[in-house]
Amino acid sequence: MAKQPMLKFVQINRDMPSKRAAEDRKQDFDEIYAEFAAAKAEEQASRCSQCGVPYCQSHCPLHNNIPDWLRLTATGRLEEAYGVSQATNTFPEICGRICPQDRLCEGNCVIEQSGHGTVTIGSVEKYITDTAWEKGWVQPIAPVQERAESVGIIGAGPGGLAAADMLRRAGLQVTVYDRYDRAGGLLTYGIPGFKLEKDVVMRRVELLEKSGVTFKMNCAVGEDITFEEIRSTHDAVIIATGVYKSRDLQGPGSGATGIVRAIDYLTASNRASNFGDTVPEFESGELNANGKKVVVIGGGDTAMDCVRTAIRQGAESVKCMYRRDRANMPGSQRETQNAEEEGVVFEWLTAPKGFTGDAVEGVMAQKMRLGLPDASGRQSPELIEGSDYTEPADLVIKALGFEPEDLPTLWGCAELEVTRWGTVKAEFTSGRTALPGVYAIGDIVRGASLVVWAIRDGRDCADAILADLSAKAVAAE
C-alpha cells in the first residue's frame, strides 16, 4: 500500500521559512523571510488535511485551488502545482508574499481550528512560483489566435495588469496607460522591498511586455491624453487607477512642515532604496527619517510599511499612534509583530489633536478608551478627559488611508458616474459602468482594499469584456 503523502499535521508541526534576525534585517530593504527548501516545502504541504470543504479556498478572493497544489507540492510535482496555482491567480508569487494570509486562507484553515497550526499556504505558494521562474516554466503569453479588438487600461497596478494578462491570453490587443514611469502601481512604489522585492514585480511587467502588452508610461489622463481619446482608440476601456488621495489630518498645526503623506514617503523610499533613483525630497531629508523622531499615525498595513521603513532609514525613534487597541487594528498582526521586533513602539488608544512647531516638533495627543460598537461593529474610541500629552516628533507620517480622486473632474467626463464616496459606479462582478464600453475595477470601485481583490476584479472584468465583445460581434453579423 502506498505511503500516505498527506494528513501529516498530527505528526508534523507548522513551520515558517526562517526569518532574518531583527538587527540584521533593519540594515537593508531585502525581504525578511528565507525561501523554503524543496524538502521543507513538501513537508509543510503534506500537513494539509485535504478536507472535503476547503475553507482556505472559499475564503481566498481568487478561490485558488489550494488543496490540489499543496498535494502536488507534497508529492514533488511542482510544475503541475504551478499550473494549478497560475490557473486562478495571475501573480501567485506576489500574493504569496503580501497577502494577509492570517486573515484569509490560513486564518480559515481547518487544522488551525483543530489546534494543530495552519498550513503555511502563503510560503508554499511563494516557493512554487519562485521555483517556476527559476526553472523557466513561466513563459510569455502566446495567444492561439490574434484578434483585432483592442482594450485600453488606465492604471498599471495589480488589477490593470491582471486584466491585461487575461485579455492577451484571448488574443486581444492591450495598451496600458499609467502616470508613473514604472508599471506596478502600489506594488512598485507603495509596498516596501522588505515585503516585496522590486525585481519580482519588474519581471512580471517584462513578461507582459514580451507577451505583446503595450505600456504607455508617464501618461497622465486629463493632462497628456484625454479620456475621450482613449475611448475613441479602443473597443473597451478599463479604469483601474486605484485610490491615491490621502485622508487628511485636522487640528492646530496640521499644516506644519515635517507632516507628510504616507504615499509620498513610501514612494520616495522605494525610488531611492530599491531603484537607486535620485529623489530630491529624500536627499534633502524632507522624506527621509534618518536621525529623526518619527511618529506614524494610523493602524493599517500602510502604517506598518511606514514604521518599518523609518527603522531602516536610521530613525532615532519610531512610534505608531493608533486610536484603537491592537485587537481592533485593521493591519496585519504578523506585520505588527515584525515591527515590534525591529524596535517600533506602539501607542495604542492614542489619537492626535494637533501639532506643535512651524516645523513640526511634537504631536499633541490624547488617550482614548473603547466604548460601544459603532455601525461597523467595532468599538468606538472615546476621549479620556485630562489625558493630553505631547509626543516629541520631527517627522510625522499620515497613514490614515486613501480616498478616490475626483475622476469626472480630472478627466473632463461628467457623465462618469461615481458614488457618494467618490468611487466609480460599476457592476460588482463585471466592472461594467453606465458608459458603453467602459469598465472599472479594483480600489477605484471598492475603495482601498487588498491586492488580491484587485487581481480578482481584473480577471472577472476581462471575462466580461470578452463576453461583451463576442456578443457585439454576433449582433453585427
N/C terminus separation: 60 Å
Beta-strand segment tally: 16
Number of alpha- plus pi-helical segments: 19
% residues in beta strands: 15-25%
Q: Low-confidence stretches at least 5 residues in length (pLDDT < 50)?
A: none
Determine the fraction of residues in helical runs and give it as a percent range: 25-40%
Q: What is the global morphology?
A: globular
Radius of gyration of CA atoms, rounded to a whole number: 23 Å
Give the biggest sheet. 5 strands, parallel
Number of domains: 3
Mean pLDDT: 93
CATH class wording of the largest domain = Alpha Beta
Label the structural class.
alpha/beta
Level-2 CATH architecture of the largest domain: 3-Layer(bba) Sandwich
Q: So, the CATH homologous superfamily of the largest domain?
A: FAD/NAD(P)-binding domain
Largest beta sheet: strand ordering = 3-2-1-4-16
Stated plainly, the CATH topology of the largest domain is called FAD/NAD(P)-binding domain
Architecture overview:
This protein is α/β, with parallel strands linked by helices. The chain folds into three domains: 22-135, Fumarate Reductase Iron-sulfur Protein, Chain B, domain 2 (Orthogonal Bundle), CATH 1.10.1060.10; 150-243 and 404-476, FAD/NAD(P)-binding domain, CATH 3.50.50; 248-402, FAD/NAD(P)-binding domain (3-Layer(bba) Sandwich). Helix content is 36%, strand content 15%. It has helices at 22-25, 38-45, 55-58, 66-74, 78-88, 92-98, 110-113, 121-135, 158-169, 186-189, 198-210, 227-233, 262-274, 280-283, 301-312, 333-341, 407-410, 443-446, 451-476, and strands at residues 150-154, 173-177, 214-216, 236-239, 245-246, 259-261, 293-297, 317-321, 345-347, 350-356, 362-373, 379-383, 389-392, 395-398, 402-403, 438-440. Helix 2 (38-45) crosses helix 8 and helix 5 packs across helix 8. The radius of gyration is 23 Å and the shape is globular. 46% of the residues are buried. InterPro entries: DPD_II, FAD/NAD-bd_sf, FAD/NAD-binding_dom, GltD-like, Helical_ferredxn.
